[in-house]
Amino acid sequence: MFDLLKKKLSNFVEKFSNKVRETKDKAREEKKEEIVQKRELKPELKVARKVKAVFKKEIRLKEADISNMLFELELSLLEADVNEHVAKTFCDEIKKRLLSEKVPAKDASTFIKERIKETLKELMRTEKLDLITMIKNSEKPFKILFLGPNGAGKTTTIAKLTFLLKKHGFSSIWAASDTFRAASIEQLAEHAKKLNVRLIKHTYGADPAAVAYDAINAAKSSNIDVVMIDTAGRQETNRNLIEELRKIDRVVKPNIKIFVGEAFAGKNLVEQAKQFDKALNIDAFIITKIDTDAKGGSTLSLIYELKKPVIFIGTGQSYADLKPFDAEEIIERII
Ligand code: GDP
């Protein structure tokens, strides 16, 4: 009986995986077709020129040599959730660079691959932000304002960051400034209990800025290093929310404002971040759920469009699943 069930389940899983694979392949083909039509490209005709000059040490690439490869790269970027404008800009830049230099004839493909990675890394370069050093060098308490849409992982990220900072010897206190959702206060309280962190909360509907203010005072009187302020995230376009967040910003004067967004929000991630940035001038990002199906390409768009650093990525649901962001790692995943 048990074996029969096991067999049925395994058949089901196999069928399901095949279906997912088929759907992905179909989507890839459709995307390819869409780009081909849009650009009037005929990728099958753009076969790379064979490197004739086997005896030459260096060769100059022609556009036809790399058009197929660039086309595939652009597809990979799009599939990994890099937005269209950014993917095109990256590929144009790579093309420009590859056509402008001499390539070692013997090892052309390795050279090209390395150039692609280098260019992407360069395009993603932002100002470095080392949170631990910032906290070390700042007056106590260090105040972190967390912003972002609901469900992106703000509460979990606050817990993860607290766990990480504890390892570096920093104590934290939390402000439950999302007073719009009763559930969010409860959720924060659950994590606070597990991590043995003090949580400052008022009742549902209270003034979020007042909660944050109280948390700062509590930190001062108890000599706590870091104040983490959770905020509401209902509809990022909602004007009331933006006004509410601006008020917290004015009252608290945070040392850093971190936008928490989820990797598979794709194009939305950049739009959401832009709106928050316009109203509140974000300092850095934490991108969550990189462990899911998302390849993380949206982080490339985010960095390129907003020119601000991603400081951590969320890689799972447990407290230890917060890793420093490494652009190279994301690039490897994509290409
Ligand atoms: P908030 O509404 O922004 O506070 O979001 P929550 O912190 O409640 O997170 C929403 C859901 O996402 C929860 O089920 C979290 O466990 C989950 N979550 C948060 N970060 C990650 C992550 O990095 N990876 C995964 N797989 N899940 C995450």
Low-confidence stretches: 42-51
CA gyration radius, whole angstroms: 24 Å
- Order of SSEs, N→C? HEHHEHHEHEHEHEHEHEHEEH
Query: At the third CATH level, what is the topology name of the largest domain?
Result: Rossmann fold
Bin the helical content. 40-55%
- Are any ligands bound, and if so which? guanosine-5'-diphosphate
- What is the CATH superfamily classification of the largest domain? P-loop containing nucleotide triphosphate hydrolases
Q: Approximately what portion of the residues adopt beta-strand conformation?
A: 5-15%
> What is the global morphology?
elongated
Structural class: alpha/beta
Task: Describe the main β-sheet briefly.
Answer: 8 strands, mixed
List keywords for this structure.
335 residues; alpha/beta; Rossmann fold; 2 domains; 8-stranded mixed sheet; two-stranded antiparallel sheet; 12 helices; binds guanosine-5'-diphosphate
Could you characterize what this model shows?
This protein has 335 residues and is α/β, with parallel strands linked by helices. It has two domains: 61-123; 131-328, P-loop containing nucleotide triphosphate hydrolases (Rossmann fold), CATH 3.40.50.300. Helices cover 55% and strands 14% of the residues. It has twelve helices and ten strands. It has helices at residues 2-39, 63-79, 84-100, 108-123, 131-137, 154-167, 182-195, 208-222, 239-252, 267-280, 297-306, 327-334; strands spanning 58-60, 102-104, 142-147, 172-177, 198-200, 226-231, 256-262, 284-288, 310-314, 322-324. Strands 5-4-6-3-7-8-9-10 form an eight-stranded mixed sheet, sandwiched between helices. The chain has a two-stranded antiparallel sheet with strand order 1-2. α3 crosses α4, α6 runs parallel beside α7 (182-195) and α8 packs parallel to α9 (239-252). The protein is elongated, with a radius of gyration of 24 Å. The model is unreliable at 42-51 (pLDDT under 50). The structure holds guanosine-5'-diphosphate. Guanosine-5'-diphosphate (GDP) binds at residues 150-156, 187, 233, 288-289, 291-292, 314-317, 321.
